[in-house]
Design brief:
The chain is mostly beta strands and 203 residues long. Helices cover 4% and strands 42% of the residues. The strands form 4 sheets. It has a 6-stranded antiparallel sheet with strand order 2-11-3-9-6-7, with no helix packed on it. A 5-stranded antiparallel sheet has the order 12-1-13-15-14. A two-stranded antiparallel ribbon has the order 4-8. The protein is globular and about 60 Å long. The protein starts with 7 loop residues before the first strand and ends with a strand.
Amino acid sequence: YGAIDLDESASLFDNLANLSTCSVAEPWADGKLPSFEDVKCWYGFMYFETQGSGFQAQELSFDSKTLHDRVQVFIDDAQVGSAYRASCPAKVAAPAGQQMGLLVENMGRINYGTGVVDYKGLLVPPPVKGHWTAHCLPLRPEQVRALPFASGGRGGGPAFHRGSLHISGAPADTYLDTAGLTKGLIWVSPRSFSPLSRCSRLS
Protein backbone atom coordinates (compact mmCIF):
# COMPACT_ATOMS: atom_id res chain seq x y z
CA TYR A 1 0.00 0.00 0.00
CA GLY A 2 2.98 2.34 0.24
CA ALA A 3 4.14 4.78 2.92
CA ILE A 4 1.96 6.41 5.56
CA ASP A 5 2.84 10.03 6.25
CA LEU A 6 2.49 10.70 9.99
CA ASP A 7 1.65 14.35 9.44
CA GLU A 8 -0.42 15.04 12.58
CA SER A 9 0.95 15.14 16.12
CA ALA A 10 -0.12 15.62 19.73
CA SER A 11 2.20 16.09 22.70
CA LEU A 12 1.98 13.66 25.61
CA PHE A 13 2.83 16.33 28.16
CA ASP A 14 0.30 18.82 26.76
CA ASN A 15 -2.44 16.17 27.05
CA LEU A 16 -1.86 14.70 30.50
CA ALA A 17 -5.31 15.87 31.59
CA ASN A 18 -6.91 14.02 28.66
CA LEU A 19 -4.91 10.82 29.12
CA SER A 20 -4.49 10.45 32.88
CA THR A 21 -6.91 8.12 34.66
CA CYS A 22 -5.54 9.13 38.08
CA SER A 23 -3.35 11.85 39.56
CA VAL A 24 -1.95 11.13 43.01
CA ALA A 25 0.13 13.74 44.84
CA GLU A 26 2.46 13.37 47.79
CA PRO A 27 2.58 12.41 50.60
CA TRP A 28 2.72 8.68 49.82
CA ALA A 29 2.47 5.89 52.38
CA ASP A 30 6.11 4.77 52.55
CA GLY A 31 7.79 7.84 51.10
CA LYS A 32 8.41 6.07 47.79
CA LEU A 33 6.93 6.70 44.37
CA PRO A 34 3.69 4.66 44.17
CA SER A 35 3.75 1.45 42.15
CA PHE A 36 1.32 0.74 39.32
CA GLU A 37 -0.48 -1.63 41.70
CA ASP A 38 -0.79 1.05 44.40
CA VAL A 39 -2.88 3.23 42.08
CA LYS A 40 -4.57 0.37 40.18
CA CYS A 41 -2.90 1.20 36.87
CA TRP A 42 -2.48 -2.32 35.50
CA TYR A 43 -0.69 -1.58 32.24
CA GLY A 44 0.81 1.21 30.16
CA PHE A 45 2.79 4.03 31.74
CA MET A 46 3.04 6.22 34.81
CA TYR A 47 4.42 9.74 34.69
CA PHE A 48 5.95 11.19 37.85
CA GLU A 49 6.67 14.92 37.90
CA THR A 50 7.78 17.67 40.23
CA GLN A 51 7.65 21.32 39.27
CA GLY A 52 9.04 24.64 40.40
CA SER A 53 11.27 23.34 43.21
CA GLY A 54 14.63 23.66 41.44
CA PHE A 55 17.46 21.16 41.83
CA GLN A 56 21.16 20.83 41.13
CA ALA A 57 22.82 18.68 38.50
CA GLN A 58 23.20 15.09 39.67
CA GLU A 59 23.60 11.49 38.55
CA LEU A 60 20.56 9.21 38.87
CA SER A 61 21.23 5.53 39.50
CA PHE A 62 18.85 2.71 38.54
CA ASP A 63 18.96 -1.00 39.36
CA SER A 64 16.94 -4.02 38.31
CA LYS A 65 15.42 -4.51 41.77
CA THR A 66 13.59 -1.18 41.72
CA LEU A 67 13.16 -0.25 38.03
CA HIS A 68 10.21 -2.23 36.64
CA ASP A 69 10.63 -1.91 33.67
CA ARG A 70 11.84 1.18 31.76
CA VAL A 71 12.22 4.87 32.58
CA GLN A 72 12.78 7.99 30.50
CA VAL A 73 14.13 11.00 32.40
CA PHE A 74 13.05 14.51 31.43
CA ILE A 75 14.41 17.81 32.72
CA ASP A 76 12.26 20.83 31.84
CA ASP A 77 10.46 18.65 29.25
CA ALA A 78 13.68 17.63 27.47
CA GLN A 79 14.76 13.98 27.62
CA VAL A 80 18.22 13.56 29.14
CA GLY A 81 18.42 9.77 29.28
CA SER A 82 16.70 6.45 29.85
CA ALA A 83 17.27 3.15 31.63
CA TYR A 84 15.97 -0.36 31.06
CA ARG A 85 15.62 -3.06 33.70
CA ALA A 86 17.43 -5.71 31.67
CA SER A 87 20.43 -3.37 31.18
CA CYS A 88 20.75 -2.25 34.81
CA PRO A 89 22.67 -1.07 36.72
CA ALA A 90 22.47 2.17 34.79
CA LYS A 91 23.13 5.85 35.41
CA VAL A 92 21.62 8.98 33.86
CA ALA A 93 23.28 12.38 34.14
CA ALA A 94 20.59 14.92 35.01
CA PRO A 95 21.41 18.62 34.61
CA ALA A 96 20.12 21.30 36.95
CA GLY A 97 16.55 22.38 36.28
CA GLN A 98 13.15 23.46 37.57
CA GLN A 99 11.08 20.42 36.61
CA MET A 100 11.87 16.69 36.55
CA GLY A 101 9.68 14.06 34.91
CA LEU A 102 10.02 10.29 35.01
CA LEU A 103 8.03 8.35 32.40
CA VAL A 104 7.94 4.72 33.60
CA GLU A 105 6.73 1.92 31.34
CA ASN A 106 5.25 -1.42 32.40
CA MET A 107 6.55 -3.74 29.68
CA GLY A 108 4.49 -6.79 30.63
CA ARG A 109 4.27 -9.61 33.13
CA ILE A 110 4.87 -13.33 33.39
CA ASN A 111 2.31 -15.67 34.95
CA TYR A 112 4.44 -18.49 36.33
CA GLY A 113 7.41 -19.18 38.59
CA THR A 114 9.15 -16.82 40.98
CA GLY A 115 8.47 -13.78 38.76
CA VAL A 116 4.71 -13.78 39.34
CA VAL A 117 4.97 -11.18 42.12
CA ASP A 118 6.46 -8.29 40.17
CA TYR A 119 5.33 -4.84 41.24
CA LYS A 120 5.65 -2.33 38.41
CA GLY A 121 7.02 1.19 38.61
CA LEU A 122 10.10 2.94 39.95
CA LEU A 123 10.13 1.60 43.49
CA VAL A 124 12.31 4.25 45.16
CA PRO A 125 11.82 7.60 46.92
CA PRO A 126 11.61 10.62 44.59
CA PRO A 127 15.12 11.43 43.30
CA VAL A 128 14.85 15.16 44.09
CA LYS A 129 12.90 17.14 46.66
CA GLY A 130 9.70 18.83 45.58
CA HIS A 131 5.96 18.39 45.27
CA TRP A 132 5.61 15.20 43.26
CA THR A 133 2.53 13.97 41.41
CA ALA A 134 1.96 10.55 39.81
CA HIS A 135 -0.20 10.29 36.67
CA CYS A 136 -1.67 6.96 35.48
CA LEU A 137 -1.40 6.59 31.69
CA PRO A 138 -2.90 3.31 30.45
CA LEU A 139 -3.17 4.89 26.97
CA ARG A 140 -6.39 3.19 26.00
CA PRO A 141 -7.17 3.26 22.27
CA GLU A 142 -10.21 5.48 22.73
CA GLN A 143 -8.08 8.00 24.66
CA VAL A 144 -5.46 8.14 21.93
CA ARG A 145 -8.12 8.43 19.23
CA ALA A 146 -9.66 11.45 20.99
CA LEU A 147 -6.43 13.47 21.24
CA PRO A 148 -6.38 16.91 19.56
CA PHE A 149 -4.00 16.01 16.73
CA ALA A 150 -2.72 18.94 14.66
CA SER A 151 -0.52 19.26 11.61
CA GLY A 152 3.03 20.07 12.60
CA GLY A 153 2.22 20.35 16.32
CA ARG A 154 3.89 18.30 19.03
CA GLY A 155 5.32 20.43 21.86
CA GLY A 156 8.16 19.12 24.00
CA GLY A 157 8.84 15.54 25.03
CA PRO A 158 7.13 12.37 23.76
CA ALA A 159 4.45 12.77 21.11
CA PHE A 160 1.75 10.86 19.28
CA HIS A 161 1.95 10.91 15.47
CA ARG A 162 -1.00 10.06 13.24
CA GLY A 163 -1.38 9.32 9.56
CA SER A 164 -4.03 8.00 7.19
CA LEU A 165 -3.90 5.22 4.62
CA HIS A 166 -6.27 5.43 1.66
CA ILE A 167 -7.23 2.02 0.22
CA SER A 168 -8.73 1.69 -3.24
CA GLY A 169 -10.87 -1.40 -3.73
CA ALA A 170 -11.19 -4.30 -1.33
CA PRO A 171 -8.64 -4.29 1.54
CA ALA A 172 -6.08 -7.09 1.49
CA ASP A 173 -3.75 -8.55 4.11
CA THR A 174 -0.60 -6.51 4.62
CA TYR A 175 2.03 -5.72 7.25
CA LEU A 176 3.55 -2.66 8.90
CA ASP A 177 7.24 -2.16 8.15
CA THR A 178 8.81 -0.78 11.36
CA ALA A 179 12.32 -0.30 9.91
CA GLY A 180 13.73 2.95 11.23
CA LEU A 181 11.48 3.11 14.29
CA THR A 182 12.94 2.92 17.79
CA LYS A 183 10.98 2.74 21.07
CA GLY A 184 7.28 3.46 21.03
CA LEU A 185 3.75 2.13 20.65
CA ILE A 186 1.58 1.76 17.55
CA TRP A 187 -2.22 1.76 17.34
CA VAL A 188 -3.95 0.68 14.13
CA SER A 189 -7.70 1.30 13.76
CA PRO A 190 -8.86 -0.32 10.55
CA ARG A 191 -12.61 0.11 11.03
CA SER A 192 -13.27 3.14 13.18
CA PHE A 193 -12.46 5.63 10.41
CA SER A 194 -13.84 3.86 7.31
CA PRO A 195 -13.00 4.31 4.47
CA LEU A 196 -9.66 5.40 5.95
CA SER A 197 -7.29 3.43 8.12
CA ARG A 198 -5.48 5.49 10.69
CA CYS A 199 -2.20 4.74 12.41
CA SER A 200 -1.12 6.48 15.61
CA ARG A 201 2.31 6.16 17.13
CA LEU A 202 3.85 7.29 20.42
CA SER A 203 7.54 8.18 20.16
